[in-house]
Amino acid sequence: MKASTAMKMVGGALIVLASLNASAQSSDAAAAPAAAASSSATTGKQAKAANRALGRKVRSALAKTKGVSVANINVRARGGAVTLAGTVPDQSQVDLATQAAQGVAGVTSVKNALTVRPVGQ
Length: 121
What we know:
Blueprint: H1 2-64, E1 73-78, E2 81-88, H2 91-102, E3 109-116
Parallel strand pairs: 2-3
Antiparallel strand pairs: 1-2
Helix pairs in contact: 1-2
């Protein structure tokens, strides 16, 4: 009878240990997606910051380009792809703006959505 009681106690202890181990694993598994989500959020923030920085570089390059009026030009950057939107007074500025944007380090492509709108219209 004493051996039977000892076996029951050992069996009970094993069940308790097994359940503790299972709950520890499930909490580790729950922590992994949370860590991945926070790292992707950080990556997203870094990408947005990089896009803003590239947009500023392109806008600065446009401002330094002689013959280009940047007053009505919007610059959007996403992963190296730059979009120029807005209006310029003449067609030559459309081409100059495209060339200036392409010359900025980090720019992989330029989509030019600029339209010509003569001054006063």
